[in-house]
Each structure stands twice: as structure tokens, then as C-alpha cells.
Design goal:
Layout (H helix, E strand, L loop, with lengths): L9 E4 L13 E5 L10 H7 L5 E5 L18 H15 L5 E6 L1 H14 L9 E7 L14 H11 L7 H13 L2 H8 L7 H8 L2 E7 L7 H11 L2 E5 L6 H4 L1 H13 L4
Parallel strand pairs: 2-3, 2-4, 4-5, 5-6, 6-7
Antiparallel strand pairs: 1-3
Length: about 260
């Protein structure tokens, strides 16, 4: 998908049939955070597609299969948000989209919503809703000059119970090896700007904040407090750690579907 700092790798899941630019169904964009990748959303996407939606998940700059740059400016939250907006405008033919961001990806999605207010070139004219899943609003993950083994430990903490099966560990190792160190470091240390909450409230977009019931990185009381500050709905996914879309995709799909159905989208 085209973007200002170079193309983004993505995956689309949709039902067979017509899907050109004039297709009027619901579109959803999913964004992962530090150490994450588009493939983490596949279990959730396969459940949501049954409702007839088109699902797009992306790897951000330097994340997994999206090439990185040696320019730190390319990894700022604003730059990542602009890349996301351009990519979604291209693949969604400027049609409205539901944004779902996880972890530090929630900051990227939220920033994209605020960028759209200024009607900058390439940004979609409308976002239908914003969902923040286990949002790392205060940057609880720190990377610094972490070695791969340390990143494996950080990734294990995101999984329910703090452990990964051998197969999953192999996937994570391959992903970390492909990711640009600047991408990992910047996303792991990202924090919300002081005006982000105020700006989102002023935007008036429908918002949902979701937490995993067993998340050690972003406990439920923090997601509940953020939802209160944003004036957003709040949901809790049972049996899930920091990765509700991986740990309990059925429950998260139900929460999202119910939220979107409130306004018929």
C-alpha cells in the first residue's frame, strides 16, 4: 500500500465477490504496536469477515514485512499516522473506515483521527469509529538497546500467562529479526501527547477502549480510566492478556460487532 515514507505491507480479508471502489460495505483497518504484526489480527479478522466487512491489517514502518528506514523521523507517531492514513485512503477508495489500534498502534490510530480534522492531503475524510485495544498510552514497554532475547521476554509478557509456545516463539523471533531496531524502539517508548485526549473528545468520534482481563502491561483499571477521560465505551475481554485478538478473538469480535452495530455500521 502506498505511503509517504514508502509502501506498507498489509493483508486484506474479505468475502468473495465484488469489492471495487464503489463497494458500500463496512471497512476496518487494524494497527499493531511494538513487536506486533498484521498477522496477529488474522484470528480476529476471520471472525469479523463473516459479517461482510473488508478487513485490512498493516505492518507499520520498519515493522515485520514493511521495510524500514535509517531516519528516526520516519518512526514518529505523527509520521506513522500519516503513512497509515495514506495507505487506508488508497485501499479503501476514500470510503469511511473503522480504526482499531493495539498497544502503541492505538496511539498511531488516534493520531490519524486528529490528522484527518485538518483535512490534510491523503487523509480519509471520515473515520466511522476508533477502538483502542490495550492502549499503551503511557509507554509502559521500554526497549532502549534491548537484545533480541530481551525482546522475546517483552513479547512473552504480552501473552496470557507470560509464556509462548515454541511455535509462537519461532514466529516472534522471525518477526523481530525482520523488524528495524528503530521501529521497535520508537513504538516501545511511545507516549500520548498532552492534547491527545482533549483533541479526540473534541473530534466527537465514537470510541471504544478494550482491555484484556489478565493484561499485566495495561491493567483493566487503566483502560477503564482512559475510557472515562475520553468519554468512550469500555469493554473487557475475559481470558485475555495484552493480546485480546490473539488470546480470545471470539470475545473481542463480539465486542467490536456490538459496538459498530450501535450506529448501523
Amino acid at each position: 500500500m502506498p505511503a509517504p515514507h514508502g509502501p506498507l505491507a498489509g493483508v486484506e480479508i474479505r468475502r468473495p465477490g465484488p469489492s471495487g471502489p464503489h463497494w458500500n460495505g463496512s471497512r476496518v483497518a487494524l494497527v499493531s504496536g511494538a513487536g506486533g504484526a498484521k498477522e496477529d489480527f488474522l484470528p480476529l479478522m476471520h471472525r469479523l469477515v463473516e459479517a461482510g466487512r473488508r478487513l485490512f491489517a498493516v505492518d507499520l514502518r520498519g515493522q515485520n514485512e514493511t521495510p524500514g528506514l535509517d531516519d528516526p523521523a520516519a518512526y514518529g507517531i505523527g509520521a506513522l499516522a500519516t503513512d497509515l492514513a495514506v495507505a487506508m485512503t488508497a485501499v479503501c477508495a476514500r470510503k469511511p473506515v473503522h480504526l482499531v489500534g493495539h498497544g502503541a498502534g492505538a496511539l498511531v490510530a488516534a493520531t490519524a483521527v486528529l490528522q484527518a480534522r485538518s483535512r490534510e492531503r491523503f487523509t480519509p475524510s471520515t473515520y466511522l469509529s476508533l477502538t483502542l485495544v490495550a492502549p499503551c498510552w503511557g509507554g509502559p514497554m521500554t526497549a532502549g538497546d534491548a537484545e533480541p532475547a530481551d525482546w522475546e521476554l517483552l513479547m512473552a509478557r504480552q501473552h496470557r500467562g507470560g509464556t509462548m509456545a515454541d511455535e509462537r516463539r519461532a514466529v516472534i523471533r522471525q518477526r523481530l529479526a525482520r523488524s528495524h531496531p528503530m521501529s521497535l524502539e520508537h513504538l516501545a517508548s511511545a507516549t500520548a501527547g498532552p492534547d491527545l485526549v482533549t483533541g479526540l473528545r473534541a473530534e466527537g468520534i465514537r470510541m471504544l477502549v478494550v482491555g484484556g482481563a489478565e493484561d499485566p502491561l495495561v491493567p483493566v483499571d487503566r483502560t477503564a480510566e482512559l475510557a472515562r477521560r475520553l468519554g468512550a465505551r469500555h469493554g473487557v475481554v475475559p481470558g485475555a492478556g495484552h493480546l485480546p485478538h490473539h488470546d480470545n478473538p471470539d470475545a473481542l469480535a463480539g465486542t467490536l460487532t456490538a459496538f459498530w452495530a450501535e450506529d448501523g455500521t
